[in-house]
Amino acid sequence: MTSLPYADRPAIPTGFKDRRTGLKVMGVLQIIAGALCGCMALTTPLALLVPRRPGMPPPPTVASIAGALLMYIAIAVFFIWTGIGALRTQRWVRPIMLVAAWGWLAMGVFSSIFILLEGPRLARAFSAAQPPGSPGMTSAVITTIMVLTVVMMGLIYLVAPTILIWFYQRRDVAATANYFDSKPRWTDRCPIPVLGMSLWLLLAAFSVLFAAPFKVIPMFGTLLTGLKASLVCFVLAAFLAVLASRIYRLRIWAWWATLGLVFIGGLSNAITFSKIDLTDLYRAGGYPPEQIQMMQRIGLPDRITIMVCTLVAMAAAVVYLLFVRRFFTAPAANLAFSGEAPASVLPLPAGTAHPPR
Question: Whole-prediction pTM value?
């Protein structure tokens, strides 16, 4: 009798609920999100071709367009890559999505607090930024625009990451991926919180690298410009990449170095923006005067706001570093995270076994 390929598939164990359907749904949604970001990447350069009438904002700089283009491409690749992995029930997708979603939600909460505190000022600045001679918008229209903006940002930066965390944090999802993908994966090398720290350091390295073409970097009360600023960006990006690699390997010196970098970076920003404004930074970065004037009409965060944001971000980073400190123990204690025995995933319930391969 002919053997049917699907007849030999293993039965689902009773220790957990099969979540492959949910993984496939999330995979499709992530691919759709990646495709939308890809469309944004395709349309971003068109901003340079939009005709400008008198009184309209100046066109964006080529450097800003290039930065936005690279950002959309990176996000599109990320979502499509993880979406395909979710469709294939690969275990590495879960820790990656948890790291991304928690960071995404943290930025959303931080941005929401900023908007709530600065909402009235932003509304007044929005009204003042209208081109001279234009009919102007009523307060009702401005309020409607602000409300719609807040709702959209809430959906994108709060609701979306919360859904991802809710799904990927579930024990059944971890057990399903663990059951159907028993191969050692690179995400098994360290606990998920440490993996998140490593990946965010790597993201910071790329962000600093993208800032190099602007040839300006704030540093302890001054603005370093020109070739020196670009070289500092390259060196800092390389150092962050090394830290990301060593954090992934659970090296305690990398944890201390990251903690020191957080304090040094926060102190540098605090000193710098206590003396200069953002307009000075943009002017040194080569932004055209018309664009700087438009930013001033819209309204830029003042020095106190920047100082508060810097201190809050530094405090959050320190708290997180203290939280993950317990994973950086003696080398002999880190053998459980060597990749030979996955430690960042949940074990299968008693009485179940991985499917034959």
Answer: 0.77
